[in-house]
DNA sequence: TTGTAAGCGTTATCAC
DNA sequence: GTGATAACGCTTACAA
C-alpha cells in the first residue's frame, strides 16, 4: 500500500503539455514525436498508471469481459475459463467470473447486473434457457454471447455443440463393437443438454435397430459424480446392461465408480462412454471414451465473437456450430 | 441491447428531489420516508441501475476482488475459486480472475496493474515468492492477501498451509502400515511447496528411522499429471518402492496411471498418497489417500481477511496457519 | 434532513 | 497537432 497516486495532470504538468495531449500521447493517438517523448518519459518517471474507473466512465469501455457458468468446479467449465482467459488476455482485457450454480434466477440477475456496465460483454452458459432469458438479454446494454442453444427471438450470438448427434454416434459405436444392451445415464431432462442428449440416444438406438427400453434409462438429479454413481447403482439392480452411455464425464466417472464397487470389469463386462471429453478422461481408470463436444473451441469462439461484437455492435447475430467427435479410449474396448 | 439508460438525474427529476437526495435514498442513507418512497419508486419505474464506473470513480471502491492463481485447470485452485466466490458474493462484490501460469513476471504484472485500481484488493497464490514480490506488493495501492508462505518484510496478510508437517505425517502413516521403501515424487524443488514438501518427506523418514535414498526421489517438471506419470515411470525402472508419496494429487494421479500401466497393484504392491485432498481423490481408482491442506479453508480465510482489510486498511498484518490432516482412502491400505 | 455544488480522473469536442 | 473545456454519472462536503 502506498500514498498519493500521480494523475494524468501530474504527467501533463511535468511534460509541459496539456492533459489532452498527455492523454493522446498515452493512448497512441497521433502527436509530435517530441510531445510523445516528453509525455512517456514523464509518465515513466512518476510511475503513472491510468485510473480504470475514470477511463471507463468517460470512454464507456471497462476492458472487462464477464463469464457466467453453472459451476466452476466442473472441469468442462474450467476448460472454458482457460480458453476465454486466453482470448481476453490477448486483447488486454480482464475476466470477471460468475458461478451461477445453474440457477436461472442467478443467471438472470447477472444479465440484469450488466446494466451497471461493469463489463463490456458477457459470455453466458446456461443449462435452462427460457423466454425470461430472451427478455432479459434484450434489455442488456452490452452484448451477450450464449453458449448453449440458439434462442429464437433473441438477437444474440450463439455457440452450439452438436450433442444430439454426438450421443447418437456414441450409441452407434457401442453397437458396432458388439454391445446390445446400451443404457443411458442422463442428467435432468428439463435442461437443454439433458433433452438433446436424450434425443441423440434415441436417434442412436433407432439407427442401430435397438429397442428403447425404459429399464435402461436413468437420470441423475444433476450432471455430477455422485448422481452418476447412484443412477448407475440403480441401473445395476435390474437386468445388467453391457454398455452405459453417460450424458457427461462426471456422470461417467460416477458410473465407473459404481461398476468398480460392483466388481464388474470395464470394458470387459460393461463398456462406458462419457460426453465432453474433459480432462477427467485421462485421469480415471480405465481411461474414458468420450464424445468431444469441443468445449475449448466453443469457449474460444464465444470469446472471439464477443470481442468482435463489442467492436462492431450492429453486425448480424451469428450462430456457430461446433461438431462433436467420439474419442475412443480404454473404457469401451471389445466385450469380454 | 437497448438504448438510452436512465441516470440518477432522471430518477431525481422524476421524484422531484435533488440528485443528492436520490443518491442518499438509493444508498440507504437516512432520508424522510416520503423521499425514500418517491425515489425508490421512480428508480423502479425507469429501471434505474447505478453506473459502476461513475460510482467507483467517486467512491474509490470498485466492488471487485481479484484472484490470481497459477492455473485454473488445477482442481485445487478451482476449489479456491469456489470458496472465494462465495465470500465475494456474500459481500455483494465481483470476482476478477487471473491465471498466471505460475509465471513470476505475470504475477508481478498483475500486482502492478492494481495501480489502475480495477479491484479493491487481490488474493495472490504464488508458487515462487521472491523479493520482487515484496517490493511490488509494497507499491500496491490496495491490500493484497498472499496464499503461500509468509513474506518477511512485507506488510501483507498471509494464509499458510502446513504442508511440511503434512508430508511428514504421510510418511509416518505409510511406515506404520508396514511400508519401508517410500518414494517421493515431487514437483519443482525451487517452488515454495516443492521445497516444503521435500523437507516434510525428509522429516518423516527421520522420524521413522528410514534412510534417505536418492534412488527413491523423483521430481516432475511441474505439479501436473503427465510429469507425475513420467516421474513414476522413471522410478519404476529402479528397485521397486512399496509406497509413493506425491507432492500433490495431480502428480499422484499420474503415478496411479503409471502403476496401472506397469501392472502393479495399488495398494497391494505399491501404496500411493497424494497431497491437497482435491476432488480428484474420489474420482481416481483406487480412491486416493491424500493430505488435506485445507484449500477451501485457506481460500475462504484469505477472502475474509481481504474483505476485513479493505474495510480497515490500517490493522496489523496477520498470518493464518491452516493445519494439514491425512485423509485415508483405498490407495494406501495394507501391503499384499 | 435537504439542496447546492464541487469534484473523482479521464477522454472527446471543439476551436485554434 | 494542440490546448481549453466540457462532459461522463456519481458521491459527499457544506451550507441551508
Number of helices of chain A: 12
Q: How large is the share of residues in beta strands of chain A?
A: 15-25%
CATH architecture of the largest domain in chain A: 3-Layer(aba) Sandwich
Q: Characterize the main sheet of chain A.
A: 6 strands, parallel
Number of strands of chain A: 12
Explain this structure.
The structure is a homodimer of 336-residue chains. By secondary structure, chain A is an alpha/beta fold. The first copy, chain A, folds into two domains: 64-161 and 295-323, Rossmann fold (3-Layer(aba) Sandwich); 163-293 and 326-332, 3-Layer(aba) Sandwich (Rossmann fold), CATH 3.40.50.2300. Helix content of chain A is 43%, strand content 16%. Chain A is built from twelve helices and twelve strands. The first copy, chain A, has helices spanning 8-15, 19-26, 33-46, 52-59, 75-90, 104-113, 131-138, 163-176, 192-208, 225-236, 249-261, 295-311; strands spanning 64-69, 94-99, 121-125, 144-147, 157-161, 182-186, 217-219, 243-246, 271-275, 289-292, 319-322, 325-327. Chain A has a six-stranded parallel beta sheet, with helices on both faces. In chain A, strands 7-6-8-9-10-12 form a six-stranded mixed beta sheet, sandwiched between helices. In chain A, helix 11 (249-261) links the parallel strand 8 (243-246) and strand 9. In chain A, helix 2 (19-26) crosses helix 3, helix 5 (75-90) runs parallel beside helix 12 (295-311) and helix 8 runs parallel beside helix 9 (192-208). The termini of chain A are far apart. The interface between A and B is large, with 54 and 54 residues. Strand 2 of chain A pairs antiparallel with strand 2 of chain B, so a sheet runs across the interface. The structure holds a DNA duplex (16 and 16 nucleotides).
